[in-house]
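Methods: example folding runs. The two proteins below were folded one after another, and each record is reproduced exactly as written to the output file, sequence line first and structure-token line second.
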Amino acid sequence: MRMRHGRMAAVAVAALLAGAVALPGQAADRPPGGSGGQEDPQVLVFSKTAGFRHDSIPDGVAAVHDLGAEHGFGVDATEDAAAFTPERLAAYDAVVFLSTTGDVLDERQQAAFEGYIQGGGGYVGVHAAADTEYDWPWYGGLAGAYFDSHPHIQPATVRVADRAHPATSHLGTEWERTDEWYNYRSSPRPHARVLATLDEDSYEGGTMGGDHPIAWCQEYDGGRAFYTGGGHTKESFADGAFRRHLLGGIRYATGAARADCRPERGYTPVYDATTGLDGWKQAGPGSFEETGEGTLTTRGGMGLLWYERQKLGAYTLKLDWRMASEDGDDNSGVFVGFPAGDDPWSAVDNGYEVQIDATDAPDRTTGAVYGFQSADLAQRDKALNPPGEWNTFELRVEGERLRIFLNGRLINDFTNTDPQRSLRDGYIGLQNHGEDDEVEFRNVRLKELPGSRGEDREEGHR
């Protein structure tokens, strides 16, 4: 039996193994496919029902088998809760609860599954997984929300909020599909990253108002969790877009793909499909081309697209990006803390660049403060998705401190000591590096923090 976890089940918590233990709020590091990444990821599909039984379950099981064969992960399927022991669960990188209903695990099995997640395991909940284990609060937290009610099967508009997560990166800003649309007893938003919501004006029977989450992800009690409300109908599992949605959730849960699943509130979009390039200005040669719904692609250079509308003090900037070439040798960057102007070299000389280039020297590779401080490369490598897949940066500027998060993981913590390059007052920009470099950006959003616009200086007099 392959041992994949840092901890055994809660029933054996006194016998902790010497493996990796998750930091508070952060999933344990479990390489995709088991120890050392030498084996393909393994997934268990669990579809026991103690209440209503969906006739789409066989189609769902078959779809996951197909996805595994196509994308390199092993799949076992069972309706036997006896599989929930520490030893058996240790063979799997993720467990898919496929339209389970009612009380499907006894107390010992629940304890084993808790231990599995606490040791870095992954969970995927599909549709009626939210209609499961109402008397087990830990499971309710893992799933993110419990089922409340549903109207009849009908078409609806899904609004995609996160287009970097592997479960939703293939979708446009709106996704039209037919399914049975769940209402939930509470919103997962306070503790999970909401990936998509329902437009209740597009169908009948929604009860959650203007904010109706339908897919989300989170790091939970040491592990990773993804949930989608879709999958009631047989047709869902034959639909290419839904299969990719499910695949992305599985890849996230197994650790094969990384994503920022921290809760997110209070950000203002400064570039997406709704804002366009309003407020942005190109400095220097080259350009940024809008190549899809809310997607910018670098063309030529070396230039800089900067947001001239707002000079910033303390803030957090989030944006999604990916490199086009398979070898990862594309080059771009995000500039912070530079003065206004039409010369892109002024940003180079007076601000700081957070680099995007996976093949350069340590102080000039992805996540570095270019020329000044390398990222923690071990942490960076654990967080970085490969070329062709989307990544999320958070650049958090407070005073002269710049923290860089990649897909939710802190990879660089830099403090400026040069008064000519103060981070306290400046602009943000995206670099277009050259003809042979193609990098895409999406969903650029800002949130000002206490201390912005000189508030930190004012507070010092109170």
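Second run, written to the same file directly after the first:
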Amino acid sequence: MIWEALGAVFIGLAIALSATHWLADRFPSRTLTLATGPVATLFGALLARSILGPGYPVQVMVAALAMGTALVSLLARPPRRRMRRPAAPLKGHRTA
């Protein structure tokens, strides 16, 4: 069980580091993301182990990966875009 927990923490740290590396502008805080990744995967691993029982380490790691990815993605914000001018209305069409 200790190896599954350590593996889950390392997977979560890898998820968080890759998320902050590739999508740095979308996450509000790097420290929050780096803390959420390992905690989320550890929670996912413990939840999967309690449901499946002992003897399923690969399935537990897959569940931990899924839970960590899902919870880290909840922190992401939409990309910042420049404000555009509103488009000119088409000729002959009414606007509301």
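Comment on the second run: The helical segments are 2-22, 30-52, 57-73.
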